[in-house]
Every structure is written in C-alpha cells, then in structure tokens.
Amino acid sequence: MTLTGAGVSPGAGHGPAYILTASVPEPPEDSAHTGDADAEKERALAALRQVAGELEARAARLDRPDDHASGGAGREGANILRAQALMATDPGLAVGVEALVDEGVAAPRAVFSAFAKYRDVLAGAGGYLAERVADLDDVRDRAIAVLTGHPLPGVPAEPAPPAEPGGAPRPYVLVARDLAPADTALLSRDVVAAFVTERGGPTSHTAILARAMGVPAVVGCAGATAIPPGTTVLVDGSSGEVRPDPPAEELARVAGVEGARRAALARAGESGATRDGHPVPLLANIGGPQDLDAALRHGAEGVGLYRTEFLFLGRRHAPAAEEQERAYRAALAAFPGRTVVVRALDAGADKPLAFLPPPGAEPNPALGERGLRLLRRFEDVLDAQLGALARAAASETAELQVMAPMVATAEEAAWFARACRARGLARAGVMVEVPAAALRAASLAAEVDFLSIGTNDLAQYAFAADRELGTLGDLQDPWQPALLDLVRLAAAGASETARPCGVCGEAAADPALACVLVGLGVTSLSMAAAALPAVRAGLGEHTLEQCREAAEAARSAAGPGEARAAARACLPALDRLGL
Amino acid sequence: MPERKVTVVADVGLHARPAATFVRAAAKAPMDVWIAKPGRDPVNAKSILQILALDVQQDEMVVIKAEGDGAEAVLDELASIAGSP
User: Fold this and answer.
1) Which residue among A504, A515, A547, A570 is the active-site one?
2) Using one digit for the tens of pLDDT, what is the confidence trace for A187-228?
3) Partners of A501 in the beta sheet?
4) Which residue segments constitute the domains of chain B, with CATH numbers given?
5) Exposed, middle or buried by CB within 10 Å (0-12, 13-18, 19+), for A408?
6) Using one digit for the tens of pLDDT, what is the confidence trace for A342-363?
7) Interface test mutation site (partner A, options B41, B48, B59, max chain A beta carbons within 10 A)
8) pLDDT the model gives residue A67
9) Is residue A205 annotated as part of the catalytic site, yes or no?
10) Predicted ipTM of the assembly
11) CATH code: domain of residue A104
12) 3-state secondary structure of A464
C-alpha cells in the first residue's frame, strides 16, 4: 500500500521507519506510589538526570561543525538544549518533586506537578518567558516518558544498527505528525534517510530544513504515523510517494536512479544556464555570515537574498553601525565581482524586532505594519542600515543590491529607491510579495533597478492563507496555477521596463519548478544553498523552449498536482535523473 | 554575607545563554548562592527556573550573595559573568 503526500525535498531515501510519538500522556492526578518514598524520589531524580544527560549529549553533537545544516543554527540549537538540560536538573524542581513524593504522589505525577508550578510562572509572565514553556514541557515529557516507559518523544541520535552482522548502519525514515525545528535542527544525513510528516506544507520548517540538509522529504502524508516502527520505507521526495515494505527490485531501481542523480549533480557546470546556453544566475539565500561557507561549497554565483533581520532577532536595541557593517562586508567579501542582494530589515508579523515595534496591537500582523511599512515609520533605523551597507560596499568589488520587503505600490518603491540613492547605493529593488505589486509590476519596476519575487509570502497573500498554518498547505503550494500567473505578470512587467526579475522563495529550490520559473520569464533564482546542485543539474538538461512549454503546461492546469505533473511531462530528464 | 552588585549588560538580559552560563558556574560552588533584584527576595542562583522567573532585563542591577570558604572568588566569577555582554 503506497501513501502519498507532497514531495518537498527531492531525491529518494529508504530505511527503517522511526515513528515519532505525538505526545506523552499526563500521568493520572490520583496516582500514588507503593510506599517506599526514598526509592520513589530516587527514581524521579534519576529520570531527570538521564534526560539532562541525553540533552547534553545532543548539544555536544551540534558543536561538531559538519553535523548540521548551518553553523549558526547548530550553535543556537546547542544553547537551547543545554538550557533544557539545566532545567531537568534544577535544584528547586528537585525539592518540589521530593515534597510531592513525601505526600504519597507517584514519581511521574510528582514530576508533572513540580514542573506545573514553574510552567505557570513562565506562562503568566508572557513574551520571551512564555516562549520557554515549550522547552519546559519538552523536558517534562521526556522525564515522564523515562518513568512510565512511554516511547520517548524526540528524534533518534544514531542510525539503526546494521540489518546483518558486518553491514552498514541504516539511517531512519523519520515519520511524525509534525516535527519541531529544535528536533530537526539536530539531525544529520547519517541518521535520517528521509522525512515524512502528516502535517505541514511546502514552506513548513520540515520542508525548509530538509532541503537545507539535502534529505528527501514528503509532507502532508495522511496515515504515515500508522506505519509500524521498523518497517522498511521507501520515500520519493520528488513524487511524494511513501512506500512501506517495497519489493527488493524497487529498491534496486531507486538506487540506480539515485546514482544517476548524484552523477548529474557532480557534473553540473559552474554557472546556471539552460542546455541551450540561456544564463540563469543561481544564487544562495543566507541569514548571516555563518551561511556563507555552505553557499560557496554548493557553488552559489552570489547571494540572492540576505535576510538581515536574522542578525538582529532577540535584540533589544538596533545593532551598532560597525557590527552591521562587519556582517554585510563578510558576504560581499565572499563573492568578489559577483552580486549580493541584501534585503532591508523585514520585521513584523512572524519576525518581531523589539526596536521596530508596530504602533499598536494588530489583530492580523501579517496584514499589519511590517516590512517597508515599518521601516518608513523608523526611518533612522533604515538609514543606519543603508549607511552601513554603503560603507561595507565601498571597499569590496561585489555588486551590492538592496531591496525592500513588503512593497505594495509604485509610490513605496519610489520612496525606497530615493532612500537608497541618498546613501549612494546604486542599485535598489523591491520584493514582489503582495499581489498588488505583481499586478502592477511594470509601474513598480520603473521606479527601481530590479524586482525579486518572494513566493512564500506571495502565495500567502494571493490565497489569503496563513503560511504558518499547516492545514492550509494546499493553498500555499507553489505549483498553484494562480501563483504561477502572478509570477508571470511580475516577470513580464519587469521585462517591459528592461529590469531583471528574480525569485528568492523556496519555490526556486524545486528543480522542476525552477525550470518553470525560468520559462515564466524569471531571470535569476535564489534558494537554500543545498538545493543549488540539483537545480543547476535540472536546468542544464533542458532548453529554454522546454522550460517555456513546461510553464505554459503548468499554467493551463486546473490545480497544483496537475500543474506539477504537466510541467514534469515537458521536462523528461528530471525523472531519468531522479530530480 | 559577602555580596556583589552588578548591572546586567547582555542584550538578552539574564536569560538564554547568559543565564545558563551563570547557573552552570553557580552550581559548581560548594556553598549556597543567592541572587536578587535590589530590595526583593533572593532566589537560588543554582536554579535556572528561578533565575528565568526573576526576569532580569538588560541594564537591570542584581545582587549576588554567598558565604563561606571561597565565597569571594565565587562571587567575583559570577559578577563577571552577569556583567559580560
């Protein structure tokens, strides 16, 4: 029986299923221990110590530089886990647990109730502290799982042992309802052969992280957690098929395709281009200097999206000019003579910055003062950032381009271009994330030097579907023909005014969709660095004409599934190469 | 009881990594160690949960107290951690 979901990270993987249990049940309120209070206390404290030890061990793995997708996320993850380990062995918590056991409460319930006291304090404080409640719950559930023998929540630390003596360890197929980023950030390809989740859409954390790691993934796959643990599962991250107990010849066929795929990746040339030589610069999305190594390693021809707000999340004050200048110069210095596109601070909605507060409560933050709207309110912050960018660019040979997020009108585009020019920045652009901007792309493009389409937000606003909601994943599917229509409009508008128009959303990371975007008139593609080789290989196997046919076929389709199938039928080399 | 007054300068206040570093160092001390906001009840400096709940923000002052052999050295170390960016 084959299950089907959305393939969101290409390639095929197989291995024994590792089913992540959804939650640890709350121990019954009236559970009492059998009488030996000292033994029961020791049992509870030993469980907490065991959890702390496991969290510390995982943090230590994150410190190894090649063990995760990005050095920054790795260190960040290690910090979170070490703080959680300290929570598990907290002396105040231990006192609480012991007091409850003395009253006759069984160890699992004592742990639950002792945590509840701190949980309430943190939740009541709101803001940053309330966000720590999830960390606390995770520690609590791990300890209760140890005590009750309930399967431990959390991802495997090691691959499965070899199937036969002397064989190789077998990475798991990780199956879950949904995956927390704190869990997935820890994983490496040695441990996980593929991800399968029941929830989530193409822009979910699982999808983004899987692409960054180069691990095949299928999301939105109903019924996946019913697969018995340990069953061999074959996952096709391109077609979205998930097959338990595949026949041996099917595994062999997939291995053959996977070999062809790896060979195609290895021989792809240095510069992005179609088979008939139409150049399409392939660029990397970065969140800070820590992502530059991966960008260079995967052959990025420059940076297509520098998300500067990630440098400053969690800051109370705007960062000093020198600190900004350093972070920008690092990216420019990594790509001498190439293009580096920096996005001005994109704060608000799901990425709040303390020093750029919205003017009041917003019932719909995604429709509120975010992006350029907020920067116009805090002109000094924007001006300081543009100044730091100009100084960083002065001593480097890379071509700096600066773009504004969340632009809706030509007036806004003109305002941002003036702000850039005032700082001596030669090339200013705007992102196309709002349908209004796509519809009037020519008038926006006339005010600036380039456009860059952010497909994730464009889908969110075109379909009125919150990108944070996994249940609306179908509407955020970048293969939705209406979204492709908007991309076509934006690219055509830019072309009318002889301006380049790139795509810097996750859509560019899908080798088939990348060809379609080029066929729609997009002039450059920017994506997570790990996706670059597959996109470069897929593009290099097809002519510009084939890309245009695929784009036309996709736009003529009724829905996203049909669009994808129709486009792939026009791009025959993708299946052959397992892309 | 010997004490140190120190202003927390880290952007995140005494949370996240600074809090973890602080608690880890305090936990090594052989004696009890206390931390408080001025004029308020002290909490156990070896407890990450109590320190988080204290909610010390950037630019706020804290008082750290400990007594016994080596207390001065312990306080010096903790004050320097709390006062680091």
Assistant:
1) A504
2) 778 899 999 998 777 666 567 667 767 789 999 899 999 999
3) A451
4) 3-82 (3.30.1340.10)
5) buried
6) 999 998 877 778 788 888 888 8
7) B48
8) 41
9) yes
10) 0.90
11) 1.10.274.10
12) coil
